[in-house]
User: Fold this.
Amino acid sequence: MQSSDKKKIAVFTAARSEYGLLKPLIFTMKKEPSFNTHLLVGGAHFLEEQGNTYKEIIEDGFEIYYRFEYLNNALEKENITKANGLLQIQFSEYLANHQTDLLIVLGDRSELIPIVSTAMLLGVPVAHISGGDITEGSTDNQVRHAVTKMAHIHFPATEIYKKNILNMGEEEWRICVAGEPGLDSILSMVYPDKNELFKSLGLDPLKPVILSTFHTETIDNKITSLFIRELASKIIEANYQILFTAANTDIGGNEINAALENLSSAFEDIYFVKSLGKLRYYSMMKYADIMLGNSSSGLVEAQSYKLPAINIGNRQMGRLKNKNVYDVAVNVTDIMNALSVVQDDKFKNIFVNDENIYGDGHACERIVGFIKGIDFSKLLYKKSIFA
Assistant:
């Protein structure tokens, strides 16, 4: 196939969590001969306090086709909005100079608003992965739904999320229920030995370990550094060790990360890693005893590892949950009680034989197959189908 005949497809990522979910899809798209796939990387990937995760992308063998370094380290409200404004300018310049037949984005991060709105205004079709979800405790919810209305192709994870997209007036022919692409790599991943992994992280393989990530809630924010300090001290008193990964770049995330740095210095059984990378993160999900926090990975990926997940607070409110998820308020006493509940065989037996509602490990082939079969000439002419 001549290079000129290939569809020029851009995939955008600005955070480690989103890249981890996109990674198997990028591999699949790179192997598709009818696509010329370019990886656009920006935002938190280039922040030291987020682990400089652009290096992981390079180590995975991907070329970073274009960099968008727009994010200010001082993550106050006005700087977030200014950074997104700068991103809109940068992305507009990119599209003016690079032919793009399709832009692929995933999720609900705020930087998708300038990215997708720019593509929409410049006539570039957008494919949105993971639309139709609900997370009422975070402004991500509004971002996700706004992106859905600006996008032209939709790849929700479940039939319920497809119905949510249809209820927003989107045409059914534009929607493909794919599952979450991040689950695809679980089937083929080669995991490191537990003892070697724990040794590399400083963990004791004979002591129960909790894998934990906390993000700010962004609306009614009860996840504070003070709360995390109090909770962590109680957990290690109960003879657990905790491996924390960093909060993302939402407002307030820096304060959480500073508290985690201090805790890891003060307590022998508290460990803080800015970014584990996908292999070590999924390996910890395989070997950990409990997952705790308010990350979407507790709801989406943990079931595939039969890992009990304590979901704290309102950030994920409304999102579909596997049966491994135990919801609890932002209350230290309630959370300590929850630790006992999820470690009991009675709770584990509820979900241990269940499949993951978010997918079967074949999302990428569905996404690529759907894009290959789509009529690109019809994408920009959107109708709204309201009942």
